[in-house]
Amino acid sequence: MKKRQLGTSNLHISEISLGCMSLPPNPAEAEEVIHAAIDAGINYFDTADLYNKGENEKVVGTALKQHRHNIYLASKVGNRWEEGKEGWGWDTSANYINKAVRDSLQRLQTDYLDLYQLHGGTTEDNWEEITDTFESLKKEGLIREYGISSIRPNVFMPFLQNSDAISNMMQFNIFDERASEFFDLIQQTGASVVTRGSIAKGLLTNEWRTRLKPFMSYDEAAANDVLQKIEQQFGDVHAAALAFNLQYPTVASTVIGARTLTQLKQNLDAYEKAQSLQNISEIDKWTKTDRYTEHR
């Protein structure tokens, strides 16, 4: 598995990373998937405190405990919930972030995070306080680096430009290319992009015919047209989807989800095939040049 530098940091993460949100809640089953991912060369694991309200972090922490110093572990903060209450709120205060990171570390059974990401953000947030808090956590040794997970340009660009954040996690795939408008600008700040939603909820796989449905600005007919052309040109839609994301130097890793060993293997097989695909940028001839219309 090839690795890429995450921003300007010393973290060199696998081109394919595991998004832990989709792991099975059963610890033994989740451990199987995580250990198989490690065996395949995946070294970057992404979770969040919000996923199953902390339970996902517990499962991930148990599975990674024996491998902690061989992998990179990322989590997120900002969504605040209370036990026994429905839903959650948004809190980026220094007090809350300081508490939340310690709670995450306890659940993950580790004493540091390699990357701590703000799980969203608004223009009304106190960004100076957020940045100062992340910087203080770095000095304490509780986190190595920090970043953001946002698809709002008027949120992520000022944050990246005015801090030492090294990453932005963004939805990006063949059917949602909106983020690419900002790739060069993000790279100029010294940050990388980690892509999520890379196979468009399973639409960009070799089972696309049984999963065909509208996605983003594509109706079913338009999606069908693009997928047929990809299959005809490249032979493997899943592999083409991963290669499409990884063609961009700004992209450090593309996150895949896997609930089962079979799903993990499908992603890993697609990644191997992606290595030999040529002229992947031709896909842009068949797709739309969509742009973010809000939060600019």
TrEMBL record:
GO molecular function, one term: oxidoreductase activity
Cross-referenced CDD domains: AKR_AKR11C1
InterPro entries: AKR, AKR2_Oxidoreductase, NAD(P)_OxRdtase_dom_sf, NADP_OxRdtase_dom
Domain NADP-dependent oxidoreductase, first and last residues per copy: 16-285
One Pfam family recorded for the sequence: Aldo_ket_red
Gene3D superfamilies noted in UniProt: NADP-dependent oxidoreductase domain
Entry-linked SUPFAM superfamilies: NAD(P)-linked oxidoreductase
Domain of life: Bacteria
Identification of the protein by name: NADP-dependent oxidoreductase domain-containing protein
